[in-house]
Amino acid sequence: MRLDLVQQERMQVSGDTWITAEAANLTNRELAQANFLRVSEKENSYTEFLRSRGAVDPGESAIKLVLRGIRPEGVRITGMRAITECGPPLRGTLFYSPPASEEESPNLGFDLDEPAPKAQRITREGGWKKDYFAHRTINLAQDETIALRLETITRKHYCEYTIQMQVTTAAGVITQVIDNAGRPFAISAVLRKSTEGGIAFEAYQQLYVGGVADPSGNSDWKLWDATKWEGVYDFD
User: Fold this and answer.
1) How would you write the chain as a 3-class SS string?
2) How many CB atoms lie within 10 A of CB 34?
3) Which residues fall within 8 angstroms of residue 141, CB to CB, at 6 or more apart?
4) What is the signed CA dihedral for 44, 182, 89, 213, rounded to 10 degrees?
5) Domain that holds residue 157
6) 46-96: per-residue pLDDT in tens?
7) Is residue 128 assigned to a domain?
C-alpha cells in the first residue's frame, strides 16, 4: 500500500486559534507579516509561518490521507491506532480567534487522552463509536484509492503522535507509519478554568487576539494583556 497524500489540516472548529510552548514575542515586522498572510490567498504560507514558530492546533486537528493499493492480490487495513507521547498542555502564547463556520465531518477519530487510542468511527451527528476496526476492515485492490480524514482530539494534554496502520497482505501483516514528513504531529489542549469552563486566558504567558474575538472588529492579530483580557466570544 502506498500513501499518495498525508496532509495535516486545520479543523474549522479551531477557527484561527493556535498555541505555542513559549511566548512567541513576535516583532512588529513578524506581526505585520502574519496579518498580511492571514488575509492573503496564501493559506499554506500563513500556516507554515505559524507552525515554523512552534504553533500547534488547539484541542482538535485533522489529517487527510489518500491510500493506494499497489499489490496485485490487494490488501486489507485491519487496524489503526495513535502512538502518543503526551504531557501537560502548552502555556506559551495563545493566538485566539474562534470559528465562524461549520465543520466537515471526519471519517475516523482518535482520542489522545485515552491510554491506547484506537480509530473510532465518527457519525454524521458527531458521535464517536469505539474501535472502528473491531468489526470491519478497509479493502484496497491494486490501483484502488481511498481518501480518509482523521480527527485527533485532546482535552487534557499536549501530545506528539504518529498513526500506525496494520495492513494484511499476501506476504503477512505489516505496520505502516503515518507521520508529518518524518516528524510527529502535535496538538495541545486549551487551558480552561474548569473541566467544562471557559478559557483560562490568564494562564498563558502571552495572548494575541484577532478575528471575531477582537472587540474593535479588526481582524488583525493584536497583543493583549492575558491577565486582563475579558473575551467577548468563547470557543468550545
Assistant:
1) CEEEEEEEECCHHHCCCEECCCCCCCCHHHHHHHHHHHHCCCHHHHHHHHHCCCCEEECEEEEEEEEECCCCCCEEEEEEEEEEEEECCCCCEEEECCCCCCCCCCCEEEECCCCCCECEEECCCCCEECCHHHCCCEEECCCCEEEEEEEEECCCCEEEEEEEEEEEECCEEEEEEECECCECEEEECCCECCCCCCECHHHCCEEEECHHHCCCCCCCCEEECCCCCCCCCCCC
2) 20
3) 69, 74
4) 0
5) 2-224
6) 999 999 999 999 999 999 999 999 999 999 999 999 999 999 999 999 999
7) yes
pTM of the model: 0.87
The owner of cell 494562564 is 203
Any domain includes 140: yes
What distance in Å separates the CA atoms of residue 188 and residue 174, rounded to the nearest whole number? 30
Residue 209: pLDDT over 80: yes
Q: Is residue 232 part of a domain?
A: no
The verdict on residue 19 lying in a domain is yes
State the average pLDDT over residues 158-186. 94
Number of domains in the chain: 1
**pLDDT, tens digit, 9 for 90 and up, residues 115-166:** 999 999 888 777 888 888 988 899 999 999 999 999 999 999 999 999 999 9
Give the residue from 177, 96, 78, 188 showing the smallest Cα distance to 135: 78
Distance of CA 79 to CAs 9, 102, 139, Å?
22, 30, 12
Helical packing angle, 28-39 and 43-51, nearest 10°: 150
